[in-house]
């Protein structure tokens, strides 16, 4: 792909199409990358103290029993919007999309399971016995949907469209598994009364969906109640976003132009891509990268386990399990997608980023979390470059085999 064509993909054609452009994976991946770069530069600049001061500044709401730092607001509240969109995507895929039948769902589900189990196994082999490994094992389990799809959209234009469907479906299932791990592993104690309030708010949301109520004057308060109650229950508050996404109706009624899930995703996905995920990245990716710290990455077994787990383990897990399942005829290979195309896409699974950074912050104390987050950033960069190179190579193969004039 030429520089001019790449630039044209990054530059929206005109103001009238800006909203549409906000909904593309290219935009989401690019903004996420820019936010992470700004965080790294800021945290390693002469103004690093201002970065730490802003990230650690407290914003409290005593009447809601909330007292969080700016960084934790980004982690607990802002990122919940991203997980709400992920929940909407997952619900759509389950009801009317690639996961709507056992045969359709089998390959991405198997691939996602392999992409979680193998990296965790590799991490434990490398980091076993190291202090903190018992909490950090889930860090290499996640694939970043926005970042991975952004790379695919940017350099994979000649790859069959089934590649995007395969990557989206496995990334959604992968994130669902990661969300389940967060809920199960990183919940220390539960306030059952607060959890009861969260469940009641979710039930009210579901009943309102069944009653075909459309006003945001009901849904916005219910969403806020669910989030606050989930936080006060001691469960990571982003779970509220997933729960409400999964409770949203995805089938349009007769005479209805679009389902509630479709309308919400259309309106909220640009906010998630342009504001929420970049804000989280801005406050999560600001890792001090001193010479000694970078040198420690080569000897820190947790960091090594994360890098090898994401870059190598994800590829082996996703592609290896998919290859075996296809060869054994347990599943069908997506139309038009060769095994080499699948290998190129599988490499992108090593882009952990958003959820991996979140798990690192939940699993480790600040000093150790910085090393783990640096390993996540290094792994995501390596997987992005390797995946992009493989996709470009496959794109050239597809271009060479296309009939003239197409």
Topology, element by element:
Elements: H1 3-10, H2 18-22, H3 25-43, H4 48-56, E1 58-61, E2 66-69, H5 70-95, H6 102-127, H7 133-136, H8 145-155, H9 162-185, H10 192-210, H11 216-232, H12 238-246, H13 260-284, H14 291-297, H15 301-327, H16 339-347, H17 353-363, H18 366-401
Antiparallel strand pairs: 1-2
Helix pairs in contact: 3-8, 3-13, 5-9, 5-12, 5-13, 6-9, 6-15, 8-9, 8-18, 10-11, 11-12, 13-17, 15-16, 15-18, 16-18, 17-18
In a few lines, what is going on in this structure?
The protein has 406 residues and is an all-alpha fold.
Description:
By secondary structure, the chain is mainly alpha-helical. It has a domain of 252 residues: Na+/H+ antiporter like fold (Up-down Bundle). The protein is built from 18 helices and 2 strands. A two-stranded antiparallel ribbon has the order 1-2. A hairpin with a 4-residue loop joins strand 1 and strand 2. Helix 5 packs antiparallel against helix 13 and helix 8 runs parallel beside helix 18.
Tags for this model:
406 residues; mainly alpha; two-stranded antiparallel sheet; 18 helices; globular
State the CATH class of the domain at 49-186 and 288-401. Answer: Mainly Alpha
In the CATH hierarchy, the architecture of the domain at 49-186 and 288-401 is: Up-down Bundle
- Find the count of extended strands (DSSP E, 2+ residues): 2
The SS-based structural class is: mainly alpha
Distance N to C terminus: 16 Å
Low-confidence stretches: 1-19
Give me the side-by-side strand order of the main sheet. 1-2
CATH topology of the domain at 49-186 and 288-401: Na+/H+ antiporter like fold
What shape does the CA trace take?
Answer: globular
Helix tally? 18
For the largest beta-sheet, the strand count, sense and barrel status come to:
2 strands, antiparallel
* Order of SSEs: HHHHEEHHHHHHHHHHHHHH
Can you identify the CATH superfamily of the domain at 49-186 and 288-401? Na+/H+ antiporter like domain
Q: Level of helix content?
A: over 70%
Note the beta-strand portion.
under 5%
Mean model confidence by pLDDT: 83
Radius of gyration equals 21 Å
